[in-house]
Amino acid sequence: MPNLSLLLSQLFNGLALGTLLALISTGLTIILGTLGVLNFAHGALFMVGAYVGYAVMQATHSFVLAVACGALFVLVLGVIIERGLIRLYYDRPPEDQILMTFGLGIVIVEVVRLLFGGISRRMAVPDWGNGIFNMGFMIYPKYRLIVMVIVAVTLLILYLVLYRTRLGLVVRAGIEDQRMVGMLGLNVQRTFMVVFGLGAMAAGYAGAIDAPIVSVTPDMGEQVLVESFVVVVIGGLGSFPGAILGGLIAGEIISLTSMFNPAYSQVMLYAAMALVLVLRPQGLFGQEGRE
Amino acid sequence: MSTRRSNGFGPATSRRAFMKTGLGAAGALMLPGALLNTAWAKDYPSLGTFPAGASGDSVFVGLSVPLTGAYSTAGQDEKKGYELAFEHINNGTGMAAMMDSLKGSQGVLGKHVEYGIGDSETKPNSAVQVQTRFIHEKKAIMISGCSSSAVAIALEKLAQREKVVNMVGASGSNDTTGKDCQRYGFRSQPSAYMAGKALAPVVAKEIGKNVKAAYLVPDYTYGHTVFDSTRKFTEAQGWKTVSKVLVPVGASDYSSYLLNIANSGADVFVNVCFGNDSVASSKQAQQFGILDKMKMVVPNISPFQASELGPDIMAGVYGTLDFWWTMADRNDYAKTFVDSFEKKYGSKPRWTAHIAYLQSMIWADAVTRAGTFYPPEVIKTLESGKHIQSTLGEVYYRAEDHQMVREVPVVVGKSKSQMKSKEDYFEIVGVTPGEDVMPPPGTFACKLGSYT
């Protein structure tokens, strides 16, 4: 039986892992909910954010600038993708959308490989994030603690945008009933562009923030994509609070399983997803019959 | 998520190959060379891709390397090693100009060696797919290349089934020349057992004998056997194993696994992870303060680990390598290899390139000495135990399990101030002779299959 301090550390670490997963997954879920598109290029967008962050950090040594550029670059990329490609697929069957976004993901990954090569890159932890923080019951890397705070604040801002602004109202209405929103004379097209941009930005932003922790490689988005899908399924398709709760649950599952049998941490994640699908197919916060 | 990519057939189909098919076999039969070939083929029955793959004026070698996936960095380097080797074999330069059998000849048995490189994606299935196509469509007379033992073992089985010689690429698991050994597979990299046996006395001397160790172990054949062997030999030196944390291959965040290590009360952190995994886990171990509390030992250091992590993390880290470029100071073959690699690519070769180069040369040498591409004869030549001068000094293949008997270099990472040049990451603390670290035959239950 593991000791108490390990249990506490893992619980806390699950929270840290979970917030980041939640952030990535919100992007995926907003796009899915509003546009009805399963974006398989989400992992690639996360990776692009990490690379832009890395490149800007190399050039300027400014972490704030690196994260801002990573997020903005992917926002712009998202808007371009939506206008240039996704737009043409709204009325086509979901398998076409999946194939297209999946292919797009491969193209993005290979372009980055062409530009940066396959060798992994190291983004330095910013000076203020170096070192270890002693929390009494455990020690934890300073940077990861700060990331937790940054991500929590970001999720709060996203919440306010979705629940306290006109845009958010349209987005949430679009999730509920796309056709009705169009009938009310709202510019759905523009909303879709903004939403896809925002969703992509969440991925890019998360990538730039995560870059100093993981090793930056062209394939780094692959696992993230799979995990965020699991989170979205657990939380409920298209549900913002679902993505946050799903992210935290996934983070805790990974961490707590690691304590007993690390090899099963990923397996347990899928087991949890399967359980949710059996007991509550629409996910924890999903609504039945939503398309 | 798996992604499909093309398997690099493009560059392999040369104009010449196209012309050849265009001319048709009838035209080719009129050439005296081809008559000779048919005479040869009469001596041996057809088997695998023989004689079809050896009847033209060129032969084809199928290469599968991970250009993507967790071990892609190692794969890119491996690819360069093959390119250099076949350039040297075809032109009669480099090590091919130094080996007795190959001296003064171009190609192998007078035939130009063509090759195709496919992406194995660090996945056994993809590698088998790539090589199956090379064998069936290109009549590959030899296959080679991998950076993962899981892939190596899958390819060994394929080679045995298809009766095509497989010069195994990078693979450190005991199983490769143990329970999963095959008559058609030959491995040059030190096994986990050999690496562990070479490393243990050195770390016991440098770090101490009364030491508690915690292991981070990738959850597949390579990780399991490296853990078993390293544990066995360090415990014989007085070490205690206090924690073994199994992790999936290709994880990006190691925090939850590393917390177990941090809480284990160990003095030494033995990191068995490989490729990108070793880089990510080492970097995160530093962030978690583990490297301040514990010394890191890496039983088998990944090719680019030091350049990716830098001396601030790698200084003082003990481990073994298949090859390190400073071995060029001890040996002319190694010098030729390192210098020509550097001239071609502008960087020092890493050990995956070395494995690719050495394995290709040894295959060319064996075929030449056998006087035929007929697989059983090539295999018997490799099994003959004849000592071959190489980049590692004298080496030979052990007939019982097809493990190369070769020296094992033990290294320690240099600090920034100790580095004499940009790529001078390691000091070689000792080179253990192969004979001293070989497991007794049969230790890992190797049963080689049949020749035919």
Please tell me about this protein's structure.
The complex is a heterodimer of chains A (291) and B (452). With 291 residues, chain A is an all-alpha fold. Helices cover 72% and strands 2% of the residues of chain A. In chain A, strands 1-2 form a two-stranded antiparallel sheet. In chain A, α1 crosses α9 and α2 packs across α9. Chain A is globular. In chain A, 51% of the residues are buried. Chain B has 452 residues and is an alpha/beta fold. In chain B, 42% of the residues lie in helices and 17% in strands. Chain B contains 17 helices and 15 strands. A 7-stranded mixed sheet of chain B has the order 7-6-8-9-10-14-15, with helices on both faces. In chain B, strands 2-1-3-4-5 form a 5-stranded parallel sheet, sandwiched between helices. Chain B has a 3-stranded antiparallel sheet with strand order 11-12-13, with no helix packed on it. The longest helix of chain B is centred in the first third of the chain and has 20 residues. The chains are: A mainly alpha (291), B alpha/beta (452). At the A-B interface, α1, α4, β2, α9 and α10 of A face α4, β7, α9, α10 and α12 of B.
> Any idea what the radius of gyration of chain A is?
19 Å
| Gross geometry of chain B | globular
**How much helix, percentage-wise, in residues of chain A?**
over 70%
- Strand elements of chain A, count: 2
SSE blueprint and pairings:
The complex is a heterodimer of chains A (291) and B (452).
Chain A: H1 4-35, H2 42-60, H3 63-84, H4 94-116, E1 132-134, E2 139-141, H5 142-164, H6 166-176, H7 178-183, H8 188-210, H9 221-235, H10 240-260, H11 265-279
Antiparallel strand pairs in A: 1-2
Chain B: H1 9-12, H2 15-29, H3 32-43, E1 58-65, H4 72-91, E2 112-119, H5 124-138, E3 142-144, H6 149-162, E4 165-167, E5 185-186, H7 192-207, E6 212-218, H8 221-236, E7 240-247, H9 255-262, E8 268-271, H10 276-287, H11 290-293, E9 295-300, H12 305-309, H13 311-314, E10 318-320, H14 332-345, H15 351-370, H16 375-383, E11 388-390, E12 393-397, E13 404-405, E14 408-413, E15 426-432, H17 434-437
Parallel strand pairs in B: 1-2, 1-3, 3-4, 4-5, 6-7, 6-8, 8-9, 9-10
Antiparallel strand pairs in B: 10-14, 11-12, 12-13, 14-15
